[in-house]
Fold this sequence. Notes:
By secondary structure, the protein is an alpha/beta fold. 44% of the residues lie in helices and 17% in strands. It has helices at 7-12, 31-40, 54-59, 65-72, 89-99, 112-119, 137-143, 146-151, 153-159, 163-166, 170-183, 187-193, 199-209, 218-225, 229-241, 270-276, 288-309, 354-359, 374-377, and strands at 20-24, 46-50, 77-81, 104-109, 127-131, 245-250, 263-267, 315-320, 326-333, 336-342, 363-368. The strands form 2 sheets. A 6-stranded mixed β-sheet has the order 7-6-8-9-10-11. It is globular and about 70 Å long.
Amino acid sequence: MIYRRYLQDQIQSWLFKNKIVILYGPRQVGKTTLIKEILKEYGKEGRYFNCETLSAQAHFKTINPQLLKSFLGDYKIIVLDEAQRIENIGLLLKVLIDEYPNMQIIATGSSSFDLANKIIEPLTGRSITFLLYPLSAKEIKDQYDQFYVASYLEKFLIFGSYPEIFEASQEEAKVLLSNLSSNYLYRDILEFEQLKKSDLLLKLLQLLSLQIGSEVKCHELASALKTSSKTIERYIDLLEKAFVVFRLYAFSRNLRKEMTKSFKVYFYDLGIRNSIINNFNPLSLRSADDLGALWENFCIIERLKYNQARGYLANTYFWRTYDQKEIDYIEESGGKLHAFEFKWNSGAKVKKPKEFLAVYANSDFKSINSDNCWEFFT
């Protein structure tokens, strides 16, 4: 099944505007499928290069404009997939856009730290960047309907939404997730850091998997893993740039007792999270804390996907005070704050955050549960 990705229209709207299109995203998330769908519209005027192959790397060793032109000919659009594998990719892209402004270039990368470090300076003002997430509930709903998506809600929370894995049976999904975690998840980080062993990285991920929805304290993780806080901070940063996890920071403006420097870590895909700790138990067998953590992570990542799909720009946070008052998720947009609490059970009692609403008068609050969640992210 090939899903229509909502980024396709956004990417196509930026083609042939004298910008190199950069598409980031985790490995196996569907970047190649997406760009090949775009290429279909250009037939023989388009060309795809897999830059992980030695032949592509050899062809693009040169940055001589004439040699590049003789190789590329009169293609209208070219795709450099996993472009970070090309030596001097930043200079290469700069030469191509400067010398051949009528040729559209799309470059993809599975690790933002690798590709971005090589292109940021050469391509200043010459590129537009997109991030492709795993499948969203909205994309699946658009393909089928809301009832179909709702029937797969538990599968989302246990096996995630990588395209190939979402279509697989439960047993196949376990194998595919294990393969993805073992063979692809750390590869870019290990190569970038020139590490031979991933033990520390895996142990850190296991601890982060068990702390979804909780504040991350680097010194505590460092103590548990017998390393330094700087190493923990460095690895979390790399995991974020490899699109394994993302951070949500604390919101603070007025109250002295608000936590200001805290952050939480969530996973881009819950199937990856569950694979890391080897827990594919059904929701009925999970503890209330684990179910709550899965639900919180799911709601936040689906909201981020939904906001991107509709071009909604918002600053995102969580809120907590030193006396343990908290809000799971906050969006700030247009001078207004929208606060959300996530509860799996639609019958769960939720107290309005009176102190927050009193201090931040221009704000509202809503509880998101398994019954009313669809309006939140579809």
